[in-house]
Amino acid sequence: MREIAPDLAKGRVIAAHLGNGASLCAMLDGHSVDTTMGFTALDGLVMGTRSGNLDPGVILYLEQERGLSANQVETLLYEQSGLLGVSGGLASDMRTLLASDDPHAKEAIELFVYRIAREIGALTSSLGGLDGLVFTAGIGENAPEIREKVCGRLGWLAVALDAEANRRNGALITTLDSDVAIHVIPTDEEAMIVRHTLDVAGRSAAC
């Protein structure tokens, strides 16, 4: 963001990392102030196979009423929930769900979008407003239908989507009169791994 839109990077920005794993991060002047993740990456948004935010009572129900062991609950929440579970086992891959006419696939997509939009609202409150939104990762970068659906729920933020730019996965997908600038920026997790590794290695050498 500092390279692409330096002024915006100093403001109130939400990064939407949407892939098989998914999360939102609220940043002020490039520093994280809130996130959808919790104690683990299981919390937050609906993901490919992970449940996301869940009533703790569900775990008690599964163990006490359905007789599931702790290991079975763990497998259910990490590997059999999310888009895969809501779609009735159809798929965890958003491309498959978008291409399907199955009503369960449509339900999974709508839940995914609803939860993203709801959490954007919560993080906007944490930031005291919103200047920019960044879509990244597999779904965020390559699924214009999802971006359109999410932006369709953000009318209260005066988001004005540029339909053509969104369709072709443009770098900026909002019109010039949009109150919130929305960018599509490819993620580079490998580069971040290298940066963190070098940082840790440098600190270890210094010790």
Q: Order the strands across the largest sheet as they lie in space.
A: 3-2-1-4-5
Bin the strand percentage. Answer: 5-15%
Oligomeric state: single chain
Number of domains: 1
Give the C-level CATH assignment: Alpha Beta
Q: Based on the coordinates given, report the CATH architecture.
A: 2-Layer Sandwich
CATH superfamily: ATPase, nucleotide binding domain
List the helices and strands and how they pair.
Layout: H1 6-9, E1 12-18, E2 22-28, E3 31-35, H2 56-64, H3 70-79, H4 82-86, H5 94-99, H6 103-127, E4 132-136, H7 137-142, H8 144-152, H9 163-167, E5 181-184, H10 189-206
Parallel strand pairs: 1-4, 4-5
Antiparallel strand pairs: 1-2, 2-3
Structure description:
- This protein is an alpha/beta fold.
- The chain has a single domain (6-206), classed as 2-Layer Sandwich (Nucleotidyltransferase, domain 5).
- Helices cover 47% and strands 14% of the residues.
- It contains ten helices and five strands, in the order H-E-E-E-H-H-H-H-H-E-H-H-H-E-H.
- It has helices spanning 6-9, 56-64, 70-79, 82-86, 94-99, 103-127, 137-142, 144-152, 163-167, 189-206, and strands at 12-18, 22-28, 31-35, 132-136, 181-184.
- The mean pLDDT is 92.
Could you list some keywords that capture this structure?
single chain; 207 residues; alpha/beta; Nucleotidyltransferase, domain 5; 5-stranded mixed sheet; 10 helices; 47% helix; globular
What's a quick, concise take on this entry?
This protein has helices at residues 6-9, 56-64, 70-79, 82-86, 94-99, 103-127, 137-142, 144-152, 163-167, 189-206, and strands at residues 12-18, 22-28, 31-35, 132-136, 181-184. By secondary structure, the protein is α/β, with parallel strands linked by helices.
